[in-house]
Amino acid sequence: MILFPNEQWQPVVRQLKAAKHVVLTTHRSPDADGIGSELALFHTLIDMGISVSIYNRDEVPRICRYLPSSEKIQIVENPDMQGVDTIVALDAGAKSRLGFDEDVFTGKTLINIDHHASNPLYGDINVVNADYCATGAMMFDLIQHLGQPLSKASADAIYAAVLTDTASFHLDRVNADVHRMTAALIDAGAEPAVAADAIYDSQPLARLTLLTRALQTLAIKHDGRSAWMHVDQNMLDETGAALEDTEGYIDVSRSVDGVEAVVFIRPESEKRWKVSFRGKAGCDVGAVAAKLGGGGHKYASGCAVSGSLEEVYAKVSLVVDDVFSV
Ligand SMILES: [Mn+2]
After folding, report:
1. pTM, 2 dp
2. In angstroms, what is the span from residue 91 Cα to ligand 1's centroid?
3. At what angle do helices 32-47 and 135-145 cross, to 10 degrees?
4. What architecture (CATH level 2) is domain 10-200?
5. Which of 5, 48, 162, 279 fits a 20 to 30 Å CA distance from 130?
């Protein structure tokens, strides 16, 4: 089965089949959707005899290191593009999110495959469709258009992407087709129990210690309709947790009954903060993030805001206040 039969994959298929050397990449601070999409396509292109490398700007997160060939992902500041004619950007909502200098792309065909509604179609070839629950699910369709069987390695990678990007099949784009795809992944050898163990049940203790600290900052505002939580550098230092360990914290505050907008703030760099949003019950947090210079999906989005923590709270509050003022 194909998830979205009307999607136009032919230009991508043509470019990949004719390519001399393909580089796959994803956004900075990659998540399991970016990594899973890369690995799913990587295994498929290798099976087709196409020369392929994966170059990312940032490390593979801990929860993805169980995936076959994740150790082959090269972390580079300035990728060596000698002989490369095709670059595939996966799950990156903007070209700047790839983290590479502009000259890296010069003279190459850039294929942009993504499911963020805010994607400005920065590629030479673009397949962008916000109806897909994950970029990994786009790989499920692309592999079929490439005429390739779904290997166990690709199925495991797509499963990890879909599991995490749907918050364990919680989010609104999960429908019967998503479950039919998941069944096909399992038929192809994907192992849900292995994924659950690696992604959710192998956490460092410091992650839970930091979560208890983060939960002390949980504030419910707007008559119970918004939930706010943060982690700062002191909390990271004191608990020994890594920034990537905060992945998923937002789903804890999202679980509060009656909450429609969820805000989670964590350090990005000196005096700059990453703000993540989750929405429920019709609350469009994609629009909230867009007003702050970010982007994403209706129910999952983010942006970066500069200033002190207090200033960031104030800036974000101004925009969230608007949502609940009507
Ligand atoms: Mn994604």
Report:
1. 0.90
2. 5
3. 10
4. Alpha-Beta Complex (3.90)
5. 48
